[in-house]
Amino acid sequence: MSAPLSSAPRTALVTGAGKRLGREIALGLAKAGWRVAVHYRSSESEALQTAQDCLALNAANQSIDPHHFIFQADLADEVATRQLLPRVVQQLGQVDAVVNSAALFEHDDVQTFSYANMAAHWASNTGAAIVLAQALHQHCQASGAQSAESVVINMLDQKLWNPNPDFLSYTLSKAALESANTLLAQALAPLVRVVGVAPGLTLTSHMLDDDKFKQLHKLSPLGRSSSVEDVVSTVVFAMHNRAITGTTLLVDGGQHLMKFERDFSLM
Question: What average pLDDT does this structure show over 46-66?
Answer without folding.
Answer: 86
